[in-house]
Specification:
This protein is 14% helix and 34% strand. The chain has two domains: 92 residues, Peptidoglycan hydrolase domains (Immunoglobulin-like); 167 residues, Distorted Sandwich (Glucose Permease (Domain IIA)). The chain has two helices and 20 strands. β8, α2 and β9 form a beta-alpha-beta unit. By secondary structure, the chain is of the alpha+beta class. The protein binds zinc ion. Zinc ion binds next to loops.
Amino acid sequence: MPRQVIASLGAGLLLALLVSGLVFAKPAHSPWPGGIAIVDIGSADQPPPVASFNDAPLLVMMRDDRWHAVVGIPLDTASDALSIRVGDEELAIDLVPRTYKEQRLTVKKQSYVTPGQQQLERIGAEREIIDAALNRYRVATSTGIELAPPVDGPRSSSFGLRRFFNEQPRAPHKGMDIAAPEGEPVIAPRDGVVSATGDYFFNGQTVIIDHGQGYVTMYCHLSDIAVEHGQAVATGDIVGAVGKTGRVTGPHLHFGTYLNGTAVDPAILLPEN
Ligand SMILES: [Zn+2]
């Protein structure tokens, strides 16, 4: 191999190590509604145990030389414990309570608050596509769950907020909003496969990435989409650009993270800002 090729490979490897060393943090067990439970389910000297919650398969990864199940905990969980299935056994996980605040927003375009019949049909059709991508389970070996920030910028701590648009109650906020200028590149936060792209009524131009084993991330309100459905992406690849398409009050990235079809707080998966 020519020397300059070896040198550039070495530089690339060094860069990859620097990047991974700088941007990743190890997500902690976060057992509350909207959080992520990380549960020891067995020793490494066996194949990965099969685990599920509410019949949805769970991500299973190796951590500290033990198999761990990673459980996305639904925002609307009211009990102080939940039960997952590991092989033939039930395993209880204690939860800590968490209540989320209310958020009141004013949206000028009335159709975004009370859509008309034609818009409702469009929203319904899009909901099916989005839900299918968010609930997709692809068999893959997990290399972890930590994420690089998809874009730099101030992060709202608005995950889980119970929202009112023009005083009317709507679904809770199931993501993190990162403020960044329009056109700022958005990168893939870890390796995956693009499982949906589209221009949706509420979410605007959107990319959804499947990271395997039911781990899915979503990018909304983009000004530009740089990837195609089915495309493999690596950490750091540009997937689009920050914008203000869909139901927004200004340019920002809406960043959603999902495990076992459940929206979880992206802050748990990202390094501190
Ligand atoms: Zn948002």
